[in-house]
Design goal:
Structural class: mainly beta
Distance between the termini: 43 Å
Number of helices: 3
Largest sheet: 9 strands, mixed
Radius of gyration: 20 Å
Order of helices and strands: HEEEEEEEEEEEHHEEEEEEEEEEEEE
Strand content: 35-45%
């Protein structure tokens, strides 16, 4: 029996980006462009999903693997309990507070954080953030792989209402999950679930990337996403390199500029940066970071593809 086929104009074929539709439905600002001068100064609006104030960040270099957002918790406030089937890394941009994490049938775990802390939310575990100050707001910056996961399954209920517990990533019986000693591999590879202070963490020597360069790579909570901190000395630069899309480079300290350009192109894009600046180099663009200040420059990169659990 022949298949009954109706022929349509190819230009009318529907293309669905489920993540983009979900993002638009959140009704909060979306920051676009090439870079953000200071994440602490971004405009934020009420986000019903979180119960706080927030803004998405979708810079040109993000691609469709990762996204980012900033979220602010009012003084003395708290966000709504959350769980989701995508990974999330959190950097505390300002303030102090605490986070509680639990499985649906397990004991609650809590840890305190401050400006400069870094941690990952265990996959699909329940969590809730609390502002520890009654006078000042707390603001954090998060990178997730929501675009990949939401578009992979294109079903929001599966992402946000999934009952599966990843006990191999977060065992509720482990009372020291967020306080256990980090495991250091070689000079600059670390498995850890919570980093109290990224600004002052000792780093391993990385002279192959330039004189005085230092680095530390993180496997956080068993994710396929990962992070690393790089530092380079006064009057030096990080050698030009390139990689895939979605690496969110957040300046922790120092002042300087980055040059970015497509391979085989002569024209360079120059971006000036300081503490709180965010740069997301486009996929396969060469880029180099120059320290133009009087102190060592340090940045945190939150990105796709963990060294411990390589995905691509």
């Amino acid at each position: 029996m022949p298949l009954d086929v109706a022929r349509f104009d190819q230009s009318q074929a529907p293309r669905v980006d489920t993540y983009q539709e979900w993002q638009a439905a959140q009704s909060i600002p979306v920051v676009r462009g090439f870079h953000v001068p200071d994440i602490k100064q971004l405009e934020v609006s009420p986000w019903g999903l979180k119960g706080g104030l927030a803004s998405f960040i979708r810079l040109d270099g993000a691609g469709k693997a990762t996204d980012a957002y900033v979220c602010e918790i009012p003084p003395g406030g708290k966000l709504k309990p959350q769980r989701h089937l995508y990974e999330e890394m959190v950097y505390i941009a300002s303030g102090r507070g605490a986070t509680v994490v639990w499985q649906s049938d397990g004991q609650r775990h809590s840890f305190e954080w401050q400006t400069g802390s870094l941690f990952a939310v265990p996959l699909n575990a329940w969590y809730q953030h609390f502002n520890g100050s009654g006078e000042e707001p707390a603001r954090y910056f998060a990178v997730t792989n929501a675009p990949f996961m939401i578009n992979l399954f294109h079903n929001a209920d599966f992402i946000f209402q999934n009952e599966f517990r990843f006990t191999d990533r977060f065992d509720a019986a482990d009372q020291n999950y967020f306080g256990r000693q980090a495991k250091l591999y070689g000079r600059s590879w670390m498995s850890v679930n919570f980093v109290p202070d990224t600004h002052n963490l000792p780093l391993g020597e990385q002279s192959e990337r330039g004189p005085g360069a230092r680095n530390m790579k993180f496997d956080l909570a068993g994710q396929i996403m990962c992070a690393h901190i790089s530092e380079f000395a006064v009057g030096t630069y990080k050698k030009a390199h390139f990689h895939g899309a979605g690496a969110h480079v957040l300046i922790l300290s120092g002042r300087g500029r980055s040059l970015l350009w497509p391979q085989h192109a002569e024209e360079r894009t120059s971006v000036e940066w300081g503490p709180g600046s965010l740069i997301v180099p486009p996929e396969l663009w060469l880029h180099m970071h120059q320290n133009l200040g009087a102190l060592p420059a340090r940045y945190l990169a939150l990105r796709w593809n963990n060294w411990h659990y390589p995905f691509v």
